[in-house]
Design brief:
The chain is an alpha/beta fold. The protein has one helix at 2-25, and strands spanning 34-36, 41-47, 50-51, 55-58, 61-69, 75-79, 85-88, 93-100, 103-108, 120-125.
């Protein structure tokens, strides 16, 4: 009986440790850097491979976004649910304006594989 209890305890310990490890590694796109827009304009820095912000907080209405690509690869910034997309080559800055209603919008780099590597975020519009 003691050997059986020891094995059960060992299995339980492994399951718990694995669960904690997976929880620590999970990605929550809302846990990264946040920028709050106060004047209707924001600059998002793109680098290889990431954005400097994961959550943008703004008010409903027009939002001017500047994509500043400081990386060596081409990057985009697309706001899902809209036709807004900026594309900037290495070292380029591109700007555009999108009008957003109250709600939550995802944004991402549409270059193959970039969003999967973390180039994505959320715009929270109040």
């Amino acid at each position: 009986m003691t050997l059986l209890r020891s094995r059960r305890f060992a299995v339980l310990a492994v399951v718990l440790v694995a669960g904690f490890a997976l929880g620590a590694c999970s990605s929550d796109k809302k846990s990264g850097p946040t920028k709050t827009v106060t004047n209707g304009e924001i600059t998002v820095d793109a680098h290889d491979i990431g954005f400097d912000v994961q959550v943008i907080k703004t008010s409903a209405g027009p939002l001017t976004i500047t994509l500043d690509n400081t990386g060596a690869l081409e990057h985009t910034l697309k706001v899902d649910g809209t036709d807004f997309e900026l594309k900037a080559g290495a070292g380029e800055k591109k700007s555009g304006t999108v009008t957003l209603s109250k709600g939550t919008y995802d944004f991402e780099c549409t270059i193959a594989g970039h969003a999967q590597q973390g180039m994505k975020g959320t715009i929270e519009v109040s």
